[in-house]
Amino acid sequence: MTTHTRTVDRPGVAEVEQPSLPRSVFLHLLPGVLTAAFFYAVTPALVRAGQPAIAGAVLAVVLVVIPVEVGWLLREARRRTGSWALAGVLPYRPGPFTWRKVLLVVALLAWGLSVSLLGIGGSMRDSFFSWMPGWAADPLSAGEGSSIARILTVVGYVLVLVVLGPLVEELYFRGYLLPRLGRLGAWAPLVNVSLFALYHFWKPWDVLNLIIILGPMVYVVWRLKDIRIGIALHIALNSIALLNVVPALLSG
Predict the structure, then answer these.
(1) What does pTM read for this prediction?
(2) Integer Cα distance of 37 and 212 in angstroms
(3) Where are the domains of the chain?
(4) What pLDDT is stored for residue 93 in this prediction?
């Protein structure tokens, strides 16, 4: 897999190397493969111990997603600049976070919520993935653990799946990988969001749903060269999921 380098002369973009497409696909999907392998290997034991299956997802993000993706960014920063500063491998140079961008985040959030109400992921799961373990298809329903364990899972969900996970994923996928698809022009956002959706191997029924929900966001990030929009929206969408997560985990 070869790597090509070119100078990007569009405003707000630093010079960035352009890896080959196979290498880009590999970098998009490898963390997902490792995360899914961990989730499906560890979660059955957690469920047998009476823990909610979503605890396996929290552990997967803590022990796989964050170390792998942040580790790669740090490695590349050190290799490219001689420093551990992530700014060295995040080429977008956004300007101030204006009211226009705030309104864009609100509009993108409304879009994401509207698409979620269509239940595309649930329909795909019921139609094509009914053979998967129940705890994987509905990780909130499994486990009869203690109240303390459930509370700790909620706290972990908030810290890891609402804040840290989305932050790291946006830095890696939109901050690092998206600019390195720059040679694809306007196709770059579609390729990036499609590979990001496929990266969710632990819930394959959600691929189409994620592409539809996040596609406009990725295009806006690419167009404005501002990953803060992606970070804000990703965290907001995961925060709204708490409306289902908290009652499901604390009602047992």
Answers:
(1) 0.92
(2) 26
(3) 14-250
(4) 81
